[in-house]
Amino acid sequence: MPFPRPRRPLGPAPGAAARHWYEGVLGWPTAPGAPLRLVTGVRFDVLDVPAEAGAVALRHLAPASPVALAGGRMRLLVAAGSAEELPGLLDWLEWGALALDLRALGAGGLTEAPAPPVRAVGAAVPGQGAGALQGAAVWLRPPEPGREVEASLPALPSFEGVTGAPDLVRLVDTVAAQCHRVRLRRGAGPRSRGRDQPLAFS
């Protein structure tokens, strides 16, 4: 299924400028050293899924929910603490017994920092074109400076009622179903692949 084209920067941003954008502009903690990595479990957790599965789940995200792409993987930012809830949530949704190509990064984790949009850090580094970025993480939906990211992230429903945030349960159910479909499709031969029927899920 097609998904939005990544918003690739014109070239890699200088490390110091990229770090300043994440820490100084967005207020997201980063890990020391290179390559630049974001600390998970503080402002957000990350669901790391096959890009094909993640593309179907985009409809369950708010327009401002940040999403990154790295190679054939999609990284969906979700509310901090979601990684801890994921195993129990998968069990409750009856996906826990299956081997799904789905992982979550939470407290104490690190994820590669996508290059910020060039407009956010200035001109691209001369002499380094888009070819240098192949396989590197890029933003499909970059975070918006000045907007608190937490309000846009999928979260578990609050006991107090509707929070306005996207529903983490619906997102996980969709992603799990799509991961299962991707697994079946990759394991099927050419003949059976043509006879695959879509799995039903809500």
UniProtKB/TrEMBL annotation:
Organism domain of life: Bacteria
Family matches, as InterPro entries: SCO3374-like (IPR047919)
Protein's name in the database: Proline-rich protein
Origin species: Streptomyces bauhiniae
